């Protein structure tokens, strides 16, 4: 039997934790026998007559500490929890809820974000039994939190108040109608949604509302609110953003600098152009880059971060940031070339930093001309996202046709949102057929992406194209998504406490049969008339 440890050997909990982290081979058990000391018959803990090993002794002492702590607690009078507020949103239908349970059980698990997105757009709420599982997922995956803010309903927020791991939900928008009371007393998420809606309607009024209480906002909210000003950005916002460069919080200064970069006539744009003009010049048929030798306080105020990320040199990091915050309209006049001509020139030792700076500037400023020039050098998804959908699909399709399936292709395709355009869909299907025999692992990953990103209404057309298992997998996923959207968009009530979803004017909303992101055509189809 295991003898009860001598309480003289027990030590403070912190000492036991330290010994466990270091290991009993390197540190003696606190309060226990020193390493190497022979145990005596009257003091040694034994198991079947053998001395107890130090790790076991440490665990026994930890167990004693836990029991002591629990036994020493005084009971408190319990108080009943207040009930959850009543729900105001309709519950999802039975079929949609059953499909969500299948997804959570592992069937087509990668489609969970799409289910949540469509359901949140519909303004529905989750069955109570599924809320805890989804709140656990949201604690690990921030990308689904905004949808859960709507779908979890009043009961989800009630639960979030009981579990610290779920407290993030209280900062997510609920999807309710905005009002002055929401701005004054709402959660951070609802206040962001209110400011964004006002900014879309009346940009000046939104900026004035933000400026009126700016000093009372938390640093996190100031940074989030500043980024909302990107919608409807104009020179009228420049004085407010210029003042925000003096904020104590780095994230606020960075957000303000990113927005001012989109205003070529801003004071920051002028200062950055002056710096960039000295750092990057034309030398015949090549460009000469001279990175800054120091990052002074004025550069830091303008959004240049002094400390580089791991693996980057300081001077190159400063050069990249200055170029990233320089108005792109400055370069053609300064260098005497078009964007395509500039990006094609040789730079030398600092080529990577210069091109990364231009790439970041094109993304910040949403410049399609520079995006086209840069995407020819490196097809980054963030650059493709700047272009119109048809052009994005065409360029991505050309890349798929020209290049082998590798990590770069998978990463690029993974960043292109659904639904993919016809040229890209055809190119990916052709690539799947081309590599299915020699590279089944690559064909499988392409099939998974295709199933998630094609127009779901194309499932019948894709099924008729090929008998390959990978194409069958695409068809299966598309059909699953098609049924998923149909169930969520159906206006049939779910459980007895549902309210019937209505369209404009109170009439029942017309049932849709597409994937929720665009109607399927009456004739032809997502892959074109010739593929029917």
UniProtKB/TrEMBL annotation:
Compositionally skewed regions (Gly residues) per UniProt: 518-532
Superkingdom of source: Bacteria
Pfam families membership: DUF5691
Ranges of biased composition (kind: Basic and acidic residues): 295-305, 508-517
Protein name in the entry: DUF5691 domain-containing protein
Region (Disordered): 23-43, 286-312, 489-532
